[in-house]
Amino acid sequence: YNISTKTVSYHQHSDLQKVDYILELLAQGKNLALVSDAGTPGISDPGGKLVQAVIERFSDGDSGESRVEIESVPGPSAVTAALSISGIPTDKFVFLGFPPHKKGRQTFLSRIMESEYPVVIYESKHRIIKFLEELAIAAKEAEKMPEESEIVRKGFKYEREKKKKPRPLTSIVVCRELSKMHETVYRGELKNIIEQIKGSENDQKGEFVVIIGK
Hints:
The protein contains six helices and seven strands; from the N terminus they run αααβαβαββββαβ. By secondary structure, it is an alpha+beta fold.
């Protein structure tokens, strides 16, 4: 693209020396722009930690205002792009970012099932099928859960109350490569979406946004 402006790499594995180097450039009065090779910088992105470091380094102790001006540049966001074409009510929703790879994964799935609102997550091409299959298992297990109750204290009395069961999945929308040439949207039953993505290597390429309706 014939861009001659000097660039500095920054990613999730960058060490503290790289952060200090960037902060020093700002201290010298340099104007810097944070860009991302995919998605909005700072949203489920290591750039968020860099912005936090800038605020902590240059914030005024009394007012809390940053001595370095931090400006947003509005642009496309995969979350809102996916929600806008999902057909799912979007007046309220929960965004959980990327699922953890190992530790905390079951807790993450439980949060999805227990949410009262539609949940939006990001997933990579390497783990999209695994996530959808685990979500299908979690949904089946939730359907089998019996009604339970617990003893709760109300004032000076103890009463038995029914515990809320996880809300069933009413609809699933999976978006792939949003705003790009091969943008694809999968709707319908979860098992059918899994079979469709599994059936084609092309459908397993790109970045994914999954919306779990409630």
